[in-house]
Amino acid sequence: MPVDMAEHLSAQGEYTNITYFGACTPKFSLPTSDENIETEPFTQAARQILPFLEKLGTAFTFVRNDVLGNIEKIERRFYKDPTRYHFIRAILEEDAGKKMSEGCVGLLWLMRGLMFVHRLFFELIEDHRNGVTSDDIGPAIRRAYDASLRAYHGWLMQKTISGITRILPGRKEFLRRLFLHNSATVDNHRVKLKVYGGGVEEGNDKGTKTTKEIWIKIDLIYVVSILTFQVVKDIQLYDVNLWATLQLMEKQINYYGRNEDEKA
């Protein structure tokens, strides 16, 4: 694993409650001590990725729908017998050596889709660390796609993905969509910060002081940097458990011979 990826996946700390990934629930959990992934919590957590994909704009609607379709394939298998299919390993084990079932296809393609999301998280965080100022997130998405899904897609799908990466929201707009507006707003270069607890006193725009609400007039670039820092921090924390889940999922899919040349 590259040093930068290892550093990315060693993130520790607590989530904020002011970004999408900080506040969304349920989140991906670490696999159990006996290396199992619980099916229902996994699919419920995977559903939290759908609003994230929606924030990439209407061009990503078909990607969002594809991810949802794979989640539903797994859920249909699970709800046939929730006790029997409590762990995703049970679906893979039961179908080992047989034709790929709908449940196995869903697991395989959902894993690949989530690998793309994981890699996109990494690319966005690396851009932030490297001080990338371009508002175009297309290159980050193309790098994420090349490192994850491209090998499993045919020529037509590759061209489709290449095309939609050119009609995405700008970086600032995309990150703004990941910030919860009821916690902070940017309007006329002002940020309203809610401070819980004492010890912080600043003059607001009327000249009074308070420890509960602070109105600060600052440059919009600084505002964006504050929002970006919080979003990136929560994405990095979120990705730690996602990556641990994907590693085990890939290991199990390979063990049961299901990471076949299934292509779109």
Global geometry:
globular
The DSSP helix count reads 11
Average residue-wise pLDDT? 82
Q: What is the number of beta strands?
A: 5
Q: What is the N-to-C order of secondary-structure elements (H for helix, E for strand)?
A: HHHHHHHHHHEEEEEH
Q: Largest sheet, described in full?
A: 3 strands, antiparallel
Question: What is the SS-derived class?
Answer: mainly alpha
Distance between the termini: 28 Å
- The fraction of residues assigned to DSSP E strands is 5-15%
User: Runs with pLDDT <50, length 5+?
Assistant: 182-220
Percent helix:
40-55%
Return Rg in Å.
Answer: 21 Å
Strand order of the largest sheet: 1-2-5
Write the layout of secondary structure elements.
Elements: H1 3-8, H2 20-23, H3 39-47, H4 49-54, H5 61-80, H6 88-94, H7 102-129, H8 138-146, H9 155-164, H10 171-177, E1 186-187, E2 190-194, E3 202-203, E4 209-210, E5 213-217, H11 220-255
Antiparallel strand pairs: 1-2, 2-5, 3-4
Helix pairs in contact: 3-5, 5-7, 7-8, 7-11
Summarize the structure in short.
With 264 residues, the chain is mainly alpha-helical. The protein has helices at residues 3-8, 20-23, 39-47, 49-54, 61-80, 88-94, 102-129, 138-146, 155-164, 171-177, 220-255, and strands at 186-187, 190-194, 202-203, 209-210, 213-217.
